[in-house]
Amino acid sequence: MYAHMKLWVAAALLTPLVAAPVLAADDATVRKDLTSTIALQGLPCGQVTGAARQGDNDYVATCQDGHRYRVYVNAQGRVIVQKQ
Description:
Elements: H1 2-40, E1 48-55, E2 58-63, E3 68-73, E4 79-83
Antiparallel strand pairs: 1-2, 2-3, 3-4
């Protein structure tokens, strides 16, 4: 039984190391999608350099030029971009 406990502890400690690259890939995809969304609204941004998730389909995007926008989907299913 002690050997099984070691295996579970090792698996629990290694899981974040394996999952980190997957989360980083998703983050790059989200930044790219937010960049496109802001550009389609005709707002100045350049490129999104950071994105903080506020909830489901709700982000605060930080642009390379210093602008910040909240990008979210409203109750009617429309994408809204608000300057912060």
